[in-house]
Amino acid sequence: MSQMHPYEEPYRYKFPVVSIKDMVKAQRILFDRLGIHRVHAVVGGSMGGMQALQFAVHFPLFAERVIAMAATHATQPWAIAFNKVAQEAILKDPAFENGYYDPETIRNDGLPGMAIGRMAGHISFLSHHSMARKFGREYKRTDGLYELFGKFQVESYLEYNGYNFTKWFDPLSYLYITKAINIYDLSRGFDSLEEAMLRIRSRLYLISFESDMLFIPDEMKVMADVMVHNKMAPTEYVEIPSDYGHDAFLVELEKFERYVKEALEN
């Protein structure tokens, strides 16, 4: 294999940390290059919701309305803790090779540490009720109950999703994305969340989900309270009854599609 020129070497750890705000600024540059200087709406869920809120604060005249779902104004310790498990599992895996792994090897073999971290993260996306409903206490049919490594269906599900995930998602990308989520804070650069949100001119729609453990409804409601208390841009907040957890915004569309449709058409 021919040796790479120094300028062609992968960045690995040398790539700078990217924030949610950086992502939004890059998107805005792209819009400008495409000749798009104002849009009807910016819509996002989870990390996409964080980006939608950054658009509202840092580019207040860009979108007529902003719809953020299952997000937060700042990532809290509960979510950071789950991301820490994933980060440590990746970093301590010998196959990670301190970031100097061969991507082709990862595509073929996966990365066990990343799979473990992904399992932890996946648990935070669900809820007690949704997992009980989906798996119950069903045992894997081919395993014996008293086999030491026999598995419940929920264990097989986590293994399947965790190990498959590592074959198509780059571990360094995962580290950079979780870092961006961890340091996200809508009030950074301002004296308070209130000062940051004073910049918003878009009509703001905030949608949370009752059983979301990753970004609990209170984290969304506090933004609505700030907007309404200060009589800022028109704001609507709704908490969707759901026992599915954080992933409700991906799988229970019928519970909130009416709100999104009304927000877009209002």
Note down, in words, how this protein is organized.
The chain has about 270 residues and is α/β, with parallel strands linked by helices. The protein is built from twelve helices and four strands, in the order αβαβαααααααβαβαα. It has a four-stranded parallel beta sheet with strand order 1-2-3-4, with helices on both faces. About 35% of the residues are buried.
Structure characteristics:
single chain; alpha/beta; Rossmann fold; Rna Polymerase Sigma Factor, Chain: A; four-stranded parallel beta sheet; 4 strands; globular
Quick overview of this protein structure:
With 266 residues, this protein is α/β, with parallel strands linked by helices. The protein has helices at 20-33, 47-58, 77-91, 103-109, 112-125, 128-135, 153-165, 171-183, 193-197, 217-229, 248-251, 257-265, and strands spanning 39-45, 63-69, 203-209, 235-240. It has twelve helices and four strands.
Tell me, what is the CATH class of the largest domain? Alpha Beta
Q: Determine the CATH superfamily of the largest domain.
A: Alpha/Beta hydrolase fold, catalytic domain
Radius of gyration: 21 Å
Strand order of the largest sheet: 1-2-3-4
Specify the structural class: alpha/beta
Q: What is the helix/strand order? A: HEHEHHHHHHHEHEHH
The major beta sheet can be summarized as:
4 strands, parallel
